[in-house]
Specification:
Helices cover 67% and strands 2% of the residues. It is mostly helical. The chain folds into two domains: 68 residues, Multidrug-efflux Transporter Regulator, Chain: A, Domain 2, CATH 1.10.1660.10; 175 residues, Antibiotic binding domain of TipA-like multidrug resistance regulators (Globin-like), CATH 1.10.490. The termini are far apart.
Length: 289
């Protein structure tokens, strides 16, 4: 059976121009012609084209393919083995490049310029969720606080992160103890812990006024990925994120009352009141890893 160049093009998923090029190169010259002089491909031609496309997919140039097809029994296996080695080397190179790209993405999105081994050593169970980091990056990219936090986080040395994490671990132990002992979230002890968290963020990442701290705590309560940056899942308790949120809001109201000299009231615990500075930072949300 014979096939026109258009039919072969459709069968093989290659352009007519490519088939003409293979013909001019002597790689695939159809055996038949129509009465009008058009190329006609036989079943044997299609089998040869299949071989050509197979070798092209493996990355062989046309000259190499021509050599292989001239004496397939003698040359094909050696050529395939050589190409296999090249592909494996290329795959390993691309894997290294992918790891470098992933590392660069992590540094850009989390601000933590430590190697994977150093991250494990310093952060332990705490893991960075890049989906959350990406969302935060997009959401807060225009925030001055976010930019400052990213810059400061990227500048932290391994020892800085060790000290930061040591403070965070001690703080987390106090929070868990207060929660387990059923201390009220709006009591002095837990509000003081909320204030420690706010100051920790300011010390290590970016200035964190009460309004920002409220929004960070809201994020902890709403998004498990955010709260996992504060308390790893293995240490979490049901209701703990909401407990911390309540403490942060209570502490923010307490500070506002002290600043203005007026009594605290329910309205003091509402986030984002008019006149408060707007802003958020992914790194601020990491302030107590």
């Amino acid at each position: 059976m014979s096939y026109s160049v258009g039919q072969v093009s459709a069968f093989a998923g290659v352009t007519v121009r490519t088939l003409h090029h293979y013909d001019r190169a002597g790689l695939l010259t159809p055996r038949g012609r129509s009465h009008a002089g058009y190329r006609l491909y036989s079943d044997a031609d299609l089998a040869r084209l299949q071989q050509i496309l197979f070798y092209r997919e493996l990355g062989f140039c046309l000259e190499e393919i021509a050599t292989i097809l001239q004496d397939p029994q003698a040359n094909a296996l050696d050529h395939l083995r050589a190409r296999q080695r090249q592909l494996r080397e290329e795959a390993a190179r691309l894997q290294r490049l992918a790891e470098v790209a992933e590392r660069a993405i992590e540094v850009q999105q989390t601000g933590v310029s430590l190697s994977p081994q150093e991250r494990f050593e310093v952060f332990g169970e705490i893991a960075f969720d890049l989906s959350y980091a990406t969302e935060a990056q997009l959401k807060w990219a225009g925030s001055e606080g976010h930019r400052e936090s990213m810059a400061r986080a990227a500048a932290h040395s391994k020892e800085d992160w060790r000290q930061l994490m040591s403070e965070a671990t001690a703080w987390r132990a106090e929070l868990l103890a207060a929660f387990d002992e059923r201390e009220p979230a709006d009591g002095e002890r837990v509000m003081d812990l909320a204030e420690e968290h706010r100051l920790h963020i300011s010390r290590w990442f970016t200035s964190c006024p009460p309004a920002m701290h409220r929004r960070i705590a809201d994020d902890f309560a709403a998004d498990p990925r955010a709260f996992a940056l504060v308390v790893p899942p293995s240490q979490q308790r049901p209701g703990l994120a909401a407990y911390l949120r309540k403490a942060v809001h209570a502490n923010a109201a307490r500070r506002e009352a002290h600043r203005t000299g007026r009594p605290e009231g329910p309205g003091d615990q509402q986030p984002g009141r008019p006149g408060e500075p707007d802003g958020h930072s992914f790194e601020a949300a990491q302030g107590q890893h």
